[in-house]
Amino acid sequence: MMILMATILPSKLSLPLNNKKSGGKHSFQSKYVFFSNKPYPKFAPLSPNLHFSYDTVSVITSPAQSKDNKITDWNTKINEVCEMGNIDKAIELLYMSPKTEIESRTCCSILQLSAELKSLQDGKKVHSFICSSGISIDSVLGSKLVFMYVTCGDLREGRLIFDKIRNEKVFLWNLMMNGYTKIGDFKESVSLFRQMLDLGVEVNSHTVSCILKCFAALGSAKEGKWVHGFLLKLGLGSYNAVVNSLIAFYLKIRRVDVARKLFDELSDRDVISWNSMISGYVANGFSEKGVELFKKMLYSGVDMDLATMVSILQACANCGDVSLGRAVHGSGVKACAHWKTTFCNTLLDMYAKCGVLDGAIRVFDLMSVRTVVTWTSLIAAYAREGLSDEAIRLFHEMDREGVSPDIFTITTVLHACACNGSLENGKDVHNYIRENDMQSNIFVCNALMDMYAKCGSMEDAKAVFLEMPVKDIISWNTMIGGYSKNSLPNEALSLFGDMVLEMKPDGTTLACILPACASLASLDRGKEVHGHILRNGFFSDQQVANALVDMYVKCGVPVLARLLFDMIPTKDLITWTVMIAGYGMHGFGNNAITTFNEMRQAGVEPDEVSFISILYACSHSGLLDEGWRFFNIMQDECNVKPKLEHYACIVDLLARSGKLAMAYKFIKSMPIEPDATIWGALLSGCRIHHDVKLAEKVAEHVFELEPENTGYYVLLANTYAEAEKWEEVKKLRQKIGRRGLKKNPGCSWIEVKSKVHIFLAGNSSHPQAKKIEVLLKRLRSKMKEEGYFPKTRYALINADSLQKETALCGHSEKLAMAFGILNLPPGRTIRVSKNLRVCGDCHEMAKFISKTLGREIVLRDSNRFHHFKDGVCCCRGFW
DNA sequence: CTAGGGTTAG
């Protein structure tokens, strides 16, 4: 079924205005034949496509050469010259002639020729001649002028004359409408259409085709449907071109079903009908249907043309059907389509999207003309494969080759920089944008902000954001999401506040802002956003619902999280994973396991992240056997290869359970190189189980892998301190000092009346500092009375016990808890968050408070949640 | 008489 490229001939049976002429633009041939019949044999051998040279023609046709007739017929001469297509001579004669002798129809001839040659310059010369000679611009001449101007692309001038002559000929109206449509000014075209109807100008098939195109482009579904009814009344409903426009219109407004019905009922389908339907399927996301229809098209004997191939290649790209793509490639080459840039560009893109990068490169290499689209497609191809450096290199090469990037190129290359996290390359592109004055384009700005956010520079992103003349919802979401992901939750929340004053957030905004509430553990702000979600019906957005569950988990309310979780009708992998991880964080290991099993029963396949969550849940609840079981299920049943995170969970599980030697052996047997977290998990196990010797051995690995991380030094120091090895503690402190490292200062915060209060360790500058101190002292002595002893070893200072106690009293989580007791209404749960792990002494005190004061305390540390109630913590010592 | 309907990249 090999197919030749069909040239699109003007068609068809149903057309009233059959295009019988050989076509205006190509009419030289016929005119030449006519001319060669005249007695000038020496011109006969001239190729019909050759332009007549000025000199040659002037020899024969100059009126000055005429011998007897002094009153030369200038009009005839000019018409003759026009017949031959010699515009230069025609103009010259026009200006040589006595103005009064030139007839209107002569001007029409020259204008017609100017239009055919698309020579605005010559057309204007005729126009100014008309003006200076006083020829009245009647309806016929006016029409010709309009035709010339519109055809030559000067819509403004054409419109001026059009308005003056108030012609009621439908042709001229169609001409104007088409002119506006071509430049994308659909609104003006529609306005003309309305005027036409008001004036009672009788519309024809061309009019409705054009107006349907406009309404399709404007997305005016209602108006388009009205035209549909209107054209049926006019009896235009059986015209092939009209139905084709209707099909295209319905496909643009995404009414594929209506389009298909029209297509099926169309008796004389031509290649355009097929192409419209196929490309419409592809554009509406039904690529398979497009391919199916394509096969039907070939069966019914209609040859594909360039447009068909382009659509089908797109479909192949969408479906990843590279074999059909290759077949179309072959047909295209046979039909010589590979000389067409559009074909090659789509072909290149098809190979790239199907993951056949070398195929894309081969197409690129073989192309003789590479446009900006070609380069952009190849850059996108590299970026898609994660080869960002190569993508950026191509961008510079393209520039050197003299092909100017457009906004698509810029956004694509920015995306490559973003994926690469290469701020330097991104800044280079930013400079290029400034140099080429593209920084006011909204797409470019959004891509720039995204790049900066992904490269971690929110400062630069903000600078772009502030300078944007117009911001859309994507601009806001990019910034808010950027702040959220770069651990700047306060900035995210503050910008969200600015945003709601200017525009309505969408699902993406909400899904971006919830993690910020979560990271601050700001339940009040989270609830505000929840209210917003309910009021605006965003709970049905899967991403939003998932983020909401996650927020409640991280704000310390797993019960509410579960309630919402149960309300999500279709739970995806993320929904399940968030809940499982949530249970893990709160130490509800068994709930996590139940939920994990429910997920598998629901037919949702766990991925590596859900396995991290379940293993983590097991380790935080000390469920050793279950943890092992899941580690095996993961590999045996689910084909998930364990990564560092999974190994870390297992090490953590073994180490916490006191199986330190086994954990050490396990690390040594790992098929991948262990990192600091793996060794760190074992180190923390050593501290819990007081194995100083192993701790020292393990610490060596850790310090080598992450010498800057002070947390590990503190961990070892704590191990020494618990063993009362103060000399070693001192040495370690000196080591930290020598390396210029500082212990990360402890910081806790608590939300009271929607305001977040932050406490730093040892800081007494809070307005209520005195009251807090008094309360803590009172609690401390009460604790002693009831037999609690302060865990002074955590003070890490080798001093007398009173000093240590004082130091411990300054711990930020105690300050925050005390502030909560003093300022929250009685009975309200006290929710405190801390940036580091909770200290042992604070943990003891929280237990005590929960018992004596009967207050529930939820403490979130860097690792997990602690729920204190009636003197017990849910962690049962696993932290 | 002259014109119209389907075609590539983020």
From TrEMBL:
Keyword field contains Lipid metabolism: no
InterPro entries in the cross-refs: DYW_dom, E_motif, PPR_At4g14850-like_plant, PPR_rpt, TPR-like_helical_dom_sf
A Gene Ontology BP annotation from the UniProt entry: RNA modification
DYW domain sequence ranges: 787-879
The PPR repeat ranges on this chain: 169-203, 270-304, 371-405, 441-475, 572-606
Signal peptide start and end residues: none
Keywords: Repeat
Molecular function via GO: RNA binding; zinc ion binding
Pfam families named in the record: DYW_deaminase, E_motif, PPR, PPR_2
Similarity comment: family membership: Belongs to the PPR family. PCMP-H subfamily.
Protein name (Swiss-Prot/TrEMBL): DYW domain-containing protein
